[in-house]
């Protein structure tokens, strides 16, 4: 029985039955229908039954909702509606909920605000200015008065409204609108939007990988259609999601995880990938099966027993398939020549880089993210003592968003404090025979003495060469 | 685009990494030599080597790493024809504009091709990039370069002033990137080029705030929404291993020892002085030369005080190394205990450009969506009452117009 369990787990892990809701299999055909024939990989995206969709409500909050076919979608205070109203609709539209029905409305444009002489000179805090009580407002809402009408009445009754500056009036209206209006917007599930949603929800679960961090990882990792990548993602799958999005089906990703069965990458949910595409691109090993010395326990026991009935035969063939694909997958990893290694992990970073970099092709990219500068400083210090890592460099990411409104453009008062740190290095071959490619093996000792040496090699020379190297490249190292 | 083979072949573009500061492109042409201050190399010797190889020079003056070109390395190595875009901006723009395998993108101007290479890599053979450059010489140079780099299939380069003459495609691209001195002049053209069957995106890249303000207002007038602006930077970290800082207790101990020694010295000097006085008292009529000699000795002694200080420092250093060795086993060769620290470089890039982004939701999409529920309720309701009239007239119009570019104006510009 114990053998059975292992086999079952393995097949689950390999086939990713954990990740993909069954409902998505049925949406597969619809998805392809929706596309235009001209651009196969980047077609018109429409919302399908079974999809998990991000919606923005008037307060600015973004929610993730699963659209089951023909069922009620509840957005709390904003209202509820039938999911069919969203099926086959494009992303990005704004809707009013009226009597559980959806009405598409044009998006907001920025309104010019006229400057007036008004100031807050005569406005005092705590004064009684709003005779319209919350009970009265509740009654208005129940009687079906629209949000804009309620706001209008509030403004009419507001004692000091006319004293306010035009900017302040607009702020007031915006605030009230967010409170009463029953609109929402479907969010285009771009990598940017998905990353922002998860980051705002809980940046710890993403190990501080902000969208700028992720973008740099994908570019530094050299992610391109058709490329092959090894990913270690203990950040809820945000890195895996990023690579999969960029590849859009063309390429290969092997992730190494720390669990026996299929790794749960919750971020992939909003990508609404179809099962086939996912299975052809993404496979996972764990730290045991990714070890070259690992011997699968079931393989040896298997041949001894003859299957008795159909059920057992089926199970046996399933196990065989799982075992075969595990063998193939291990072989694929060990054969190496991957284009990039992307790491965001809670485990010892050097142990990961040392274990997986042998499977990179020469000149392959190594990108490691960490929420802490210390972890990467330590990693860099150790990597630069090994000649097969070229120029490991540590950088911090920085991002500032601005409010852009006519006459009111400035950085937002609050900004994200950290998107973490990145280390980038290039895997190179330090084969000594490679140096004799130019046929001057005799010169080798001179090469290694720091004189005339272009790049720090090892030992004492490393420190001084690298320091001088680093210190006059402050601007330059930011290129990479 | 570039070679994906394991080994270097003739006519490949390779990146020669000499130092972090010295990274340069090289086209492998057998028969030629590569000379640098780190030695000389025959191109033919590089052929057949795996990418990423370290190669020693023929004259023993150094070595190089021969790397596979990537857009990121190309950005470091490329010949600058203009101010170029760097990793942080390129990466961020790529994500915001949702550029990926299969995307169709417009870029203006081409400049030195830093963004072009990165985008061509990301969209791949299933996607396409239309690039426009108004400077003829730069355009010619870029065309040669893109052809050499095998990008001709992915990139269509056009010599054109897009602010005046617009783009060569209509209703086609997913995203537009404008790196122009006056991007607001190209906004309406960009709107024509963006496809009308889905939400599309634009980015304008401008170093000055005044440009941003004009761009924002042009985008708003043209019916773009979700206008946002960002600044992004990379702060390179200087990582060093420094000796483990000692505790103040040991500093205090060292100072106590120093004080003790100084006091002992002082007592010695007093004792010496007393002895001399006694001697002088004994032989009052001694030769003056000897007195001078004594004076000299005192002076030497006072300069000796400085020496004493340096002795203290040396002792302290010794002490600290001793301490470092003590906790470990008796192995004296153990390296001095260090800690690895990281700090931002004293001078870093502080500003590149402001990145202004916006979305365009084609009016035809809104109209189509509105059309579905209107089977039940004929009138089109909008949030703001003053908008209702506009929307009522706009919606039926948009239903008839397929491309429907002009309708967005009616809908979203007040």
Automatic annotation (TrEMBL), chain A:
InterPro entries: SAM-dependent_MTases_sf (IPR029063), TRM6 (IPR017423)
Disordered: annotated span: 434-458
Keyword presence, Nucleus: yes
GO cellular component labels: nucleus; tRNA (m1A) methyltransferase complex
Keyword Cell wall biogenesis/degradation recorded: no
Main location class: nucleus
Compartmental location: Nucleus
Family to which the UniProt record says this protein belongs: Belongs to the TRM6/GCD10 family.
PANTHER family noted in UniProt: TRANSLATION INITIATION FACTOR EIF3-RELATED, TRNA (ADENINE(58)-N(1))-METHYLTRANSFERASE NON-CATALYTIC SUBUNIT TRM6
Protein name, UniProt field: tRNA (adenine(58)-N(1))-methyltransferase non-catalytic subunit TRM6
Source species: Heliocybe sulcata
UniProtKB/TrEMBL annotation, chain B:
GO cellular component term, pick one: nucleus
Signal peptide stretch: none
EC number: 2.1.1.220
Subcellular location: Nucleus
UniProt KW keywords: Methyltransferase, Nucleus, S-adenosyl-L-methionine, Transferase, tRNA processing
Biased composition regions of type Basic and acidic residues, renumbered to the chain: 253-269, 293-310
Example GO molecular function: tRNA (adenine(58)-N1)-methyltransferase activity
GO terms under biological process: tRNA methylation
Catalytic activity, reaction form: adenosine(58) in tRNA + S-adenosyl-L-methionine = N(1)-methyladenosine(58) in tRNA + S-adenosyl-L-homocysteine + H(+)
Disordered: annotated span: 245-311
Domain tRNA (adenine(58)-N(1))-methyltransferase catalytic subunit TRM61 C-terminal: 62-359
Entry keyword Nucleus: yes
Residues engaged in binding S-adenosyl-L-methionine: 133, 179
Keyword Translocase assigned: no
Primary role: Catalytic subunit of tRNA (adenine-N(1)-)-methyltransferase, which catalyzes the formation of N(1)-methyladenine at position 58 (m1A58) in initiator methionyl-tRNA.
Family: Belongs to the class I-like SAM-binding methyltransferase superfamily. TRM61 family.
Annotated protein name in UniProt: tRNA (adenine(58)-N(1))-methyltransferase catalytic subunit TRM61
Organism in which the protein naturally occurs: Heliocybe sulcata
């Amino acid at each position: 029985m114990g053998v059975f369990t292992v086999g079952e787990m393995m097949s689950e892990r390999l086939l990713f039955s954990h990740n993909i809701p069954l409902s998505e299999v049925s949406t597969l055909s619809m998805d392809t229908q929706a596309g235009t024939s001209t651009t196969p990989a980047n077609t018109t995206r429409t919302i399908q039954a079974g999809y998990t969709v991000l919606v923005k409500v008037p307060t600015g909050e973004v929610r993730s909702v699963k659209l089951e076919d023909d069922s009620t979608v509840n957005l709390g205070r904003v209202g509820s509606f039938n999911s069919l109203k969203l099926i086959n609709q494009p992303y990005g539209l704004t809707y009013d909920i009226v009597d559980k029905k959806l009405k598409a409305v044009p998006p907001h444009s920025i309104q010019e605000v006229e400057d007036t002489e008004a100031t807050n000179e005569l406005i005092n805090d705590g004064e009684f200015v709003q005779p319209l009580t919350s009970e009265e407002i509740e009654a208005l809402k129940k009687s079906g008065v629209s949000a804009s009408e309620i706001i209008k009445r509030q403004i009419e009754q507001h004692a000091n409204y006319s004293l306010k500056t035009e900017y302040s009036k607009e702020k007031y209206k915006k605030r009230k609108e967010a409170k009463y209006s029953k609109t929402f917007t479907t969010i285009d599930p771009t990598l940017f939007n998905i990353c922002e949603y998860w980051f705002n929800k809980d940046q710890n679960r993403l190990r501080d990988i902000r969208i700028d961090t992720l973008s740099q990882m994908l570019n530094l990792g050299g992610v391109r259609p058709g490329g092959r990548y090894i990913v270690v993602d203990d950040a809820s799958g945000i890195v895996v999601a990023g690579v999969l999005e960029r590849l859009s089906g063309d390429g290969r990703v092997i992730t190494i995880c720390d669990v026996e069965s299929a790794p749960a990458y919750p971020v992939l949910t909003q990508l609404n990938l179809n099962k086939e595409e996912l299975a052809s691109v993404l496979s996972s090993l764990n730290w045991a099966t990714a070890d070259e010395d690992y011997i699968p326990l079931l393989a040896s026991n298997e041949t001894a027993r003859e299957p008795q009935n159909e059920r057992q035969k089926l199970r046996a063939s399933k196990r065989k398939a799982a075992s075969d694909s595990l063998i193939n997958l291990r072989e694929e990893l060990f054969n190496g020549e991957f284009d990039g290694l992307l790491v965001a992990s809670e485990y010892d970073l050097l142990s990961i880089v040392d274990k997986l970099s042998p499977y990179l092709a020469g000149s392959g990219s190594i990108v490691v993210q960490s929420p802490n500068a210390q972890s990467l400083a330590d990693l860099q210090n150790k990597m630069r003592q090994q000649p097969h890592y070229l120029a490991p460099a540590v950088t911090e990411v920085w991002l500032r968003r601005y409010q852009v409104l006519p006459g009111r453009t400035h950085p937002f008062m609050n900004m994200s404090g950290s998107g973490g740190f990145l280390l980038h290095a290039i895997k190179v071959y330090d084969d000594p025979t490679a140096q004799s490619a130019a046929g001057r093996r005799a010169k080798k000792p001179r090469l290694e003495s720091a004189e005339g040496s272009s790049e720090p090699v090892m030992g004492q020379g490393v420190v001084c060469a690298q320091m001088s190297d680093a210190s006059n490249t402050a601007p330059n190292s930011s290129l990479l | 685009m570039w070679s994906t083979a394991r080994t270097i072949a003739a006519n490949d573009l390779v990146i020669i990494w000499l130092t972090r500061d010295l990274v340069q492109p090289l086209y492998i042409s057998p028969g030629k030599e590569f000379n640098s201050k780190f030695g000389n190399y025959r191109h033919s010797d590089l052929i057949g080597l795996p990418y990423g190889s370290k190669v020693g020079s023929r004259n023993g003056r150094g070595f190089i790493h021969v790397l596979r070109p990537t857009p990121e390395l190309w950005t470091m190595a490329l010949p600058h024809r203009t101010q170029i875009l760097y990793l942080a901006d390129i990466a961020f723009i790529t994500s915001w504009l949702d550029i990926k395998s299969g995307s169709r993108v417009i870029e203006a101007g081409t400049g030195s091709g830093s963004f072009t290479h990165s985008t061509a890599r990301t969209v791949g053979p299933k996607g396409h990039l239309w690039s426009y450059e108004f400077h003829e010489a730069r355009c010619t140079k870029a065309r040669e370069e893109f052809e050499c780099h095998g990008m001709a299939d992915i990139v269509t380069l056009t010599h054109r002033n897009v602010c005046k003459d617009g783009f060569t495609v209509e209703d086609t691209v997913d995203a537009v990137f404008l790196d122009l001195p006056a991007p607001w002049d190209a906004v309406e053209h960009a709107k024509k080029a963006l496809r009308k069957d889905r939400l599309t995106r634009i980015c304008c890249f401008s170093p000055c705030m005044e440009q941003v303000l004009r761009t924002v207002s042009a985008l708003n007038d043209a019916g773009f929404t979700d206008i946002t602006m960002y600044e992004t930077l990379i702060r390179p970290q200087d990582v060093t291993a420094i000796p483990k800082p000692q505790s103040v207790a040991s500093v205090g101990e060292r100072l106590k020892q120093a004080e003790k020694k100084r006091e002992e010295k002082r007592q010695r000097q007093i004792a010496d002085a007393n002895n001399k006085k006694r001697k002088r008292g004994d032989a009052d009529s001694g030769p003056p030369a000897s007195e001078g000699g004594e004076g000299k000795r005192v002076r030497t002694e006072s300069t000796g005080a400085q020496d004493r200080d340096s002795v203290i420092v040396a002792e302290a250093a010794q002490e600290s190394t001793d301490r470092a060795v003590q906790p470990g086993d008796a192995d004296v060769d153990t390296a001095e205990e260090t800690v690895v620290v990281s700090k931002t470089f004293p001078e870093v890039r502080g500003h590149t450009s402001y990145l202004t982004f916006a979305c365009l939701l084609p009016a035809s999409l809104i109209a189509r969506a509105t059309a579905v529920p209107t089977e039940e309720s004929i009138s089109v309701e909008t949030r703001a009452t003053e908008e209702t009239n506009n929307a009522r007239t706009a919606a039926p119009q948009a239903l008839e117009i397929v491309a429907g570019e002009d309708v967005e104006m009616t809908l979203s510009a007040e």
